[in-house]
Amino acid sequence: MAVNEPLCAKTLALDTLHKDSANKLALEETGQLPKTTNHEWYERRGYRLIHKRHNHYWDAHGEAPDMWTVFLRRDIT
Fold it and tell me: What domain of life does the UniProt record list for this protein's source (predicted)?
């Protein structure tokens, strides 16, 4: 785990799709909303929003899909 040596982390940070973007993508691909999004899952576990960015990632064709990325953090000590 990140809290153990050699890292001894005190904070975890990650990025994932914003819940609205994830729902939009799921509807387009499957026609159904997911039971939960990664964004919601992390929020329930105490991660909080530190930044939100539009079109952070680009697809394989060099185009930016109309998606929002959220950056989340959680203090673990």
Answer: Eukaryota
